[in-house]
Amino acid sequence: MRLDFDSFVLAAATAELSDEPAAREHADAIEFRMDLADEPVAALEVYDGELPILATNRADWEGGDAADDGRLETLAEATAHDAVAAIDVEFESILEGEAKELLETARDRDVSVVASAHDFEGTPPRNEMVRLLTEAGKYADVAKLAVTADSKSETLALLSATEQLTAHGDTVATMAMGDVGSHTRAVAPVYGSKIGYAPVDPAEATAPGQYDLETLAGLVARLE
Ligand SMILES: O=C1C[C@@](O)(C(=O)O)C[C@@H](O)[C@@H]1O
């Protein structure tokens, strides 16, 4: 199975694959945060849910919990499971050259790749966001950027970059983290963003400013 991201994919973000039945009604995929799970590989082995999995093993230097030792290897192991339709790889790891084998494994197994970048401090200038997403897209099926917006003009810059790249034919996913940027999670899909993230349980948010799954699903559907 392969997620192609031709249309918007709403991913229910969780560390527990047992959440899948609760996510099924509103989500198109499960984002399995392997870095937040106790036994991620064992959990994949017994997964029998319906939703395809986007597997993420977020590095501790990129806002996650996974130490670098064995991190990308574990993600490569995940691609052996039929339910894993896509993986998320930090763009930084790609640039460092550390993800070369992982990207090859994903390609061989027909698993899509999301190259991601996160800015927990702020929002880069518009031209830098465009450059970063363009570069990341050269290595992956989807280029993803999550920023932290402190002002409405920053959210507009993110949405404008999203619109420009989408109009150009690139496949991107964007969102602004934090309170000021919350609404971009609902609005960015209108401008072309192809992935949204929401926790099944609002108490288990995987990033600041996320809506719960049912709320985001409702907002995206209304704005379509
Ligand atoms: O990279 C992302 C996006 C995200 O940080 C968000 O802002 O919704 C949530 C994470 O679970 C996911 O891996």
UniProtKB/TrEMBL annotation:
Pathway where it operates: Metabolic intermediate biosynthesis; chorismate biosynthesis; chorismate from D-erythrose 4-phosphate and phosphoenolpyruvate: step 3/7
Enzyme class: lyase
Recorded catalytic activity of this chain's protein: 3-dehydroquinate = 3-dehydroshikimate + H2O
Top-level taxon: Archaea
Active site as annotated: H118, K144
Chain sites annotated for binding 3-dehydroquinate: E31, F32, R33, R58, R185, T206, Q210
E.C. number(s) listed in UniProt: 4.2.1.10
Regions crossing the membrane: none
GO terms assigned for molecular function: 3-dehydroquinate dehydratase activity
A Pfam family hit: DHquinase_I
CDD domains: DHQase_I
Swiss-Prot/TrEMBL keywords: Amino-acid biosynthesis, Aromatic amino acid biosynthesis, Lyase, Schiff base
Any one GO BP annotation for this protein: aromatic amino acid family biosynthetic process
Similarity field: Belongs to the type-I 3-dehydroquinase family.
Assembly with partners or alone: Homodimer.
Annotated function: Involved in the third step of the chorismate pathway, which leads to the biosynthesis of aromatic amino acids. Catalyzes the cis-dehydration of 3-dehydroquinate (DHQ) and introduces the first double bond of the aromatic ring to yield 3-dehydroshikimate.
Name of the protein described by the UniProt record: 3-dehydroquinate dehydratase
Species, as recorded: Natrinema zhouii
Designated gene of the protein: aroD
